Amino acid sequence: MTTVIVVVAALLLIGVYLSWTAGRLDRLHARIDAARAALDAHLLRRASITQELATAGVFDPAASMVLYQAAHAARLAEDEQREVAESELTQALRAVFAERAQVRAVLEAPGGEASAAELVAAVRRVPMARRFHNDAVRAARAVHRHRTVRWLRLAGHAPFPLAFEMDDEPPPALLEPLTPPGPPTAPGEPPRER
To answer: Following DSSP, what letter does each residue of 74-120 receive, concatenated?
Structure first.
């Protein structure tokens, strides 16, 4: 009788463990989906703001064309090409905003302060959103690799999670505090406090 109780208890514990593991995998995949949706939203926002700035007449024609084409390609990229297109947009932003003068040009344009603030926010949020997504992917991969999960197919038909790899290093000039240009000072006069 005690052997039957021990076997039943062991089977019950194994069932609870397997159920918990399958539930954990399910939660991790839901977390990945939510993180990917957030990342996609931030990437789309960054591309949209970049396109708006590129068509606002703030930059010289070459810089406007580079930004517009990179943003357009990022918005229309298929899943297989998305990482490359987003990396190219990051590189275009770094090239155009390599110097603080470009940031000043945006700030001096009508409505430029709001546009610059939106771009800075979008550029800063992309790396964070990508990090959250990739952390969720790493956690799910660790569970997927367990022998029990593989042998008993606890992951079901869920695809093996893939990280989103892209160049997301923001242009240093955009990370500096945004201060609108102040009134000009007379030669020899110290700059005015803002």
So the answer is: HHH--GGGHHHHHHHHHHHHHHHTSSHHHHHHHHHSTTHHHHHHHHH
Residues of the chain with pLDDT under 70: 18, 145, 148-158, 177-194
Task: Return the exposure string of 2-22: e unless at least 16 CB atoms fall within 10 Å of the residue's CB, then b.
Answer: eeeeeeeeeeeeeeeeeeebb
Q: What is the pLDDT of residue 193?
A: 45
Question: What pTM did the predictor assign?
Answer: 0.78
DSSP code for 162: -
Neighbours of 89 (CB within 10 A): 28
For the record, the structure tokens of 59 come out as: 């930059």
Q: What is the pLDDT of residue 29?
A: 81
